Amino acid sequence: MRDAKKQIDMIFSVVLNIVCLPYLDILLRPVTMALVLLIFSTIFTFGLLSAVKMKQDWDFTMLLPRDSYLLDYFVTHDVYLSKNNDLFRANLYFRDIDVSLKTNRNKMSLRIDTLVDDSYYVTRRPFYFWIDDFEKFISSNQYHSNINDLEFNDQLTVFLNNEPFKSIYGDNIVRNETGHVTASYVQFVYTNFDRTQVVKQIKALSEQRRLSRESPLNIGKDSHEYSSFTYGDFYFNWEFGTDDLSYSFTLCISFNCDQFTSFLP
Hints:
Strand order of the largest sheet: 2-3-1-4
Number of domains: 2
Radius of gyration: 32 Å
Distance between the termini: 37 Å
Number of strands: 4
Largest sheet: 4 strands, antiparallel
Structural class: alpha+beta
């Protein structure tokens, strides 16, 4: 056992004297230290620039089986439709608003206008919005001769009992047992990006969060109490992209910092 320990100590002494000490002597010279700092500062700088300019794309069709018919569908969709397509549809929801008041209905219409006017990624006003058609319906007196004499809930009942409004808005408006509107929604389309442009999708999600936060309908309310907000099934994917992009950028920066500091004398 003692002989084995002596052999280990001898090997360690040889390595220390032949390899480590000469290496340390060279490494601790001012010229060598300056050269090491220059080389790894350059590597760190280029690594940092590459991390900043990193582009991230995510194509959800990568998750599909190779023999899925959906692959052909989305390829055809990309070929024959422009980037301003209707692939990403979301809903703008309204809740806990007394829609019998004209002022509140005007605020809801203004929310639609803001959705388009203040957004880069929503460029087309929704074609069907029940308040627009309801106001025209009331002013026309076409379907009910004395409709202006009715209470709002009765007016809305007449409106929803007539076609084409019944088919278009029957599922868009939620009413309680007394006929009061508790919630409603309108569908809109995202534009100016395609299904692979993750950064733009993240910006679109951030933009809608800002518009919801700034809406007069939501002033003074927590996010989970908003009276007006947008939602789409794909928001979860966009949220994933937000977290993944932040993680990837942080990882690249951390890796470059680690490489830089590991080789400092």
